[in-house]
Amino acid sequence: MPHPASPRPPGVPAARRPELPPVHDSVICVAAPCLAISPEHGQLTGRGIDGVYRAGRRLLSRCVLRVAGREPVAVRGCRLGADRASFSATVRTGADPGPDPDIGVERVRHADGTERITLRSFTARPVRIPVEVLLGTDLAELASVAAGAAGAELPAAVHAAGLRWSTGEAQAVTAAEPAPDDALASAGLLRWQLELGPGESRTIELRTTQDRVTRAGAGQVANPLSDAVAEGDDPRAEAWFRTSVEDLGALLLRDREEPGDAFAAAGVPWRLGLAPAESLWAARMALPLGTGLAAATLRILARSQAGGRGPGAGKIPGPLRGAGPQLPPGCTGTEATLAFPAVLAEARLWGMPEDEVALLLPAAERCLDWLRGALGADGFLADPDPGPRRCETQAHAHRAALLGAGLLDGCGRPGGEEWRQWAAALRERFRTGFWIDGPDGGRPAAALHPDRRPLPRLTGAAAHLLDTGLLGGGRFAPGLLDRTRTEQVARLLGAPALDSGWGLRSMAVREPGHNPFGHRSGAVRAYESAVAVAGLAQAGFEKEAAGLLRGLLDAAENFGYRLPEMFAAEQRTLGSAPLPHPAACRPAALAAAAGIHALAALVGIRPDAPAGTVAVVPLPGAPLGALRLSGLRVSGEPFAVRISRLGLGMVEEAADALQLGG
């Protein structure tokens, strides 16, 4: 995703953004704040963005292996998990006649800077093999590397069983086990002479850290997400769910102010940090894995909330974010502020402890107070102010009001009925001001200009109109649209103009300015596609929901089940495939959470932990066949549910206090 846009004085042209290096064909391992970016052949050459990073600094940029005087022939590179990857290669030493390789090489590289190099002999007699590893680094910041401004490699010094590099502000150490037979600091070279008998293997372990100790760093964050698993008729669902859970866990970072609180970083390599709206929505979509991530993310954002009594009081700060060529940048702080009470309300229904809810309730009330004072004279919420009234912003505001009302009622606080009336008035204004009639049934405007002129673009943001949010008793909140217009939006979301066959486009094909690689102007965004699946399912449009779900699963398979935050997709045809966006984050928190959200929507879990009930309402037709999700969390206890091939749901494990509803 492009970097967030920054405000600039009127009349000053936007500076040209530096072009981000392509990473779509990189093998990326992450265990935040650790990151390893490798080419598919596995050799870190010291060029481009490849390297081992920690907290945004490159600790190792060059790690070139030579066996018997030559670089191994790469045969495969693949991820083994969110935090590690394997690179297979072969070497022909000439010990045996013929074209066959006689040495196999397996490198397993971890995000934390550990790499294990295993050599296996296929020869019929003992061999003595020289092995060399060339190491180097510039200790550059990732931002400098991305901008092409990294410096030259630093001189190395011999350190214990390896090499060390340092500047005035940083250092890196690579230690080896077994210790090398020779270490040449001037060349950044470690050497071994390995003796291998027939069929024998030897392993060299490299450990790159920021200090002088010889062991790699331990795990970073206590993961609040449950180890949930999926299994069923379609094995791809299991792989997608597993990868989504692993990637989201690998993106967790500690809050600097309160290290006990963790949040999901937006994505790697470009945005390994807090993005208020995205981190909060990822936590919301991960609620089936427990409420811990949502609670921690809400606490972090509550600490940043603006105080005082001015017009900005109660708002959560956030940077501007590019919105494509049709609209000016939007404010992620607005989105996070509207999401806060909604996520807290839903987390309470999933079983967030009442004492944790009580501590966060004042911040949610301040968000609602900000919303009350932020409406323009026309009764809509500008984003930013003054600026366009975006379609999805009104949907977020409406959801915040209704879920906030339920939260206030459930916690014994006043104001619930007032907010329900506020939401009803917004529904009336929206249906009058935002709907554009037409012979095909009409469409919602993408936005209203400040002078109330509609922007008649058909965009994927319409999916947010169907994402109304969960209320108590397994009920969904009413939407901004009446039933007739809801049906029309569902038809539009399921039609080829928006449904590429691989997911939902961010802008319809024939709209002016459509760009299949455009972040908000045509690319498929995994998060918005999952929002559409869930919204269509809850509104009863199973055909459209199932079509988008299957397309998103097919796209996930094409990307090794690690969906990028966005990708390009022309209309699907036989033999076609989605195309990677060269600069997209992968993994990204929202894309990872999208897999959890979409499959949970298929199962249809509707909890109300305070009332002690849970309902399961699966998507009719069982579009992926039989499916079982286990290891989920409802009311803080394990929860497992099975969907049959006939689309019937059955709870297999739940907290004793929960009553099953319909």
Describe this structure in words.
It comes from Streptomyces subrutilus. This is Amylo-alpha-1,6-glucosidase. It holds the Pfam family GDE_N_bis. The protein folds into 2 domains: 29-211, Glycoside hydrolase, family 65, N-terminal domain (Beta-galactosidase, Chain A, domain 5), CATH 2.70.98; 229-653, Alpha/alpha barrel (Glycosyltransferase). 27% of the residues lie in helices and 25% in strands. Strands 7-8-9-10-17-14-13-12 form an 8-stranded antiparallel beta sheet. It has a 5-stranded antiparallel beta sheet with strand order 3-6-11-16-15, with no helix packed on it. A hairpin with a 2-residue loop joins strand 7 (73-81) and strand 8 (84-91). The longest helix has 21 residues, at 354-374.
Task: Supply database-style keywords.
single chain, about 650 residues, alpha+beta, Beta-galactosidase, Chain A, domain 5, Glycosyltransferase, 5-stranded antiparallel β-sheet, elongated
Quick check: average pLDDT?
A: 93
Q: What is CATH's topology name of the largest domain?
A: Glycosyltransferase
Helix percent reads 25-40%
What is the CATH C level class of the largest domain, in words? Answer: Mainly Alpha
Protein name: Amylo-alpha-1,6-glucosidase
Domain Putative glycogen debranching enzyme N-terminal: 32-207
InterPro entries: 6-hairpin_glycosidase_sf, 6hp_glycosidase-like_sf, GDE_N_bis
Organism: Streptomyces subrutilus
